[in-house]
Amino acid sequence: MEPVRSRPVETAPVEIADHRRLVMSLAPEPAVVEMPLERCLGLVSARPLTARLAVPPFTNSAMDGFAVRLEDVRDATPGHPVRLPVAGDIPAGSPAAEPLEAGTAMRIMTGAPMPVGADAVVKVEQTDHAPGITSPPAEVAIFEAPEPGANVRRCGEDLQIGDPVLEAGRVLDGPCLAAAASVGHGLLAVRPTPRIGVISTGSELSGAGQELAAGSIPDSNGVLLAGLVADAGAVVTEQARVPDDPARLREVITGWDVDLVITAGGISAGAYEVVRQGLPELTFHKVAQQPGGPQGAGVVGATPVIALPGNPVSVYVSFHVYARPLIAALRGLAAEPPMVRAGAGAAWRSPAAKTQFMPVRWEDGTAVPVHRLGSKSHLVASLPLVEGLAVVPAGVDAVAPGDALDVLVTRGGIQ
Ligand SMILES: Nc1nc2c(c(=O)[nH]1)N[C@H]1C(S)=C(S)[C@@H](COP(=O)(O)OP(=O)(O)OC[C@H]3O[C@@H](n4cnc5c(N)ncnc54)[C@H](O)[C@@H]3O)O[C@H]1N2
Ligand code: MOO
């Protein structure tokens, strides 16, 4: 292949914040769609939700037992139980047809509507009726005088109709969906899941497990990015491996209907920089960081594209620093990366002219580099150990044990 002369690499590196601004400027306001609640797990709410039903929606029993009128059982004790005829049986889901008459009790199950006129429930254990699956007795002995409202869950005591339930911009997990369903919602206004196209570039790439030709390497960035995209709450709907052929790259991207394309490789100073050459409308520059120095971003047609460097650790770092916040914004979420402050658990070197993102794991609450070779960007096999990226600011050339650092959490929390 003929070497192609591409635009020269800018010599002065740009700041991380500048590239971040460029990347974040690519996120359009995400759409709003109405979806059945059962299909909203993991999506982000687009509008605040208020209660259409009270919780509980009707006054009901908190226990299996007997619904009573207080005045009938005021004198009940274990030694002198009060005996009442049982006028009805109320399973959950079946309101009593009649009010509770004075001088009677009704057997009632947990969650069943309280009969009109009853003001407390005596648990079955405080009666002479055996708990379990039996038919209701003709008469029950009550051993205890209940407090007013004992074992009764009042309509609306959790939440009233019109009360706020969930804010917009919330990731809908099981508890959120439970609350939304309970207050009467079957359809939710959500942001659609961003559809991502992933491209690994390079003529040296082979499929996983394939026999390697001389100079070839397995494509690890493709699966790495697919996994990171899924972790970030988006879905890879298109994926390709493209050789060093700029026209082919362009053809692949322009044929996709996705919300974001993420490429890896082909953007630095080499002679065969397929992304730099194939997508000249992107902005390419070096960012003052290590790993992940070379970066590109822009729009091809109407599709946002971010171009990450090819080294796998650079992909990992660039994804967490730039792609993840962009995907968060596409999902309708606030985009701040999750940072914690932690002490360094070892000594290491850092390039003074750049911000270093050191891949670390937690050891007794301190951040320790996962590999003895530090932040070198080809150390793909140690990525499974990485729990965070310790941020060593520019101007610092050495980290000592105990130094306080920001750590971008990439897996779980501090341990
Ligand atoms: N003269 C210069 N050379 C390089 C510079 C520079 O500033 N001047 N920057 C270096 C840095 S830093 C990085 S990072 C890389 C970025 O290069 P590219 O984005 O163009 O990536 P490639 O050259 O295509 O690949 C780099 C490296 O990663 C391997 N790779 C690529 N794709 C995959 C994949 N899908 N799976 C696994 N490994 C992959 C590739 O074989 C290379 O070893 O440039 C430096 N060079
Ligand atoms: O910036 Mo490169 O990502 O150091 O290896």
UniProtKB/TrEMBL annotation:
InterPro entries, per the entry: MoaB/Mog-like_dom_sf, MoaB/Mog_dom, MoeA-like, MoeA_C_domain_IV, MoeA_C_domain_IV_sf, MoeA_linker/N, MoeA_linker/N_sf
GO biological-process terms attached to the record: Mo-molybdopterin cofactor biosynthetic process
Transmembrane segments: none
Record SMART domains: MoCF_biosynth
Pathway(s) per entry: Cofactor biosynthesis; molybdopterin biosynthesis
Keyword annotations from UniProtKB, A to Z: Magnesium, Metal-binding, Molybdenum, Molybdenum cofactor biosynthesis, Transferase
Catalysed transformations (reactions): adenylyl-molybdopterin + molybdate = Mo-molybdopterin + AMP + H(+)
Cofactor(s) needed: Mg(2+)
GO molecular function: metal ion binding; molybdopterin molybdotransferase activity
Gene Ontology terms: cellular component: cytosol
EC number: 2.10.1.1
Domain MoaB/Mog: 197-329
Pfam families cross-referenced by the UniProt entry: MoCF_biosynth, MoeA_C, MoeA_N
Enzyme class at the top of the EC tree: transferase
Family: Belongs to the MoeA family.
Role summary: Catalyzes the insertion of molybdate into adenylated molybdopterin with the concomitant release of AMP.
Protein name: Molybdopterin molybdenumtransferase
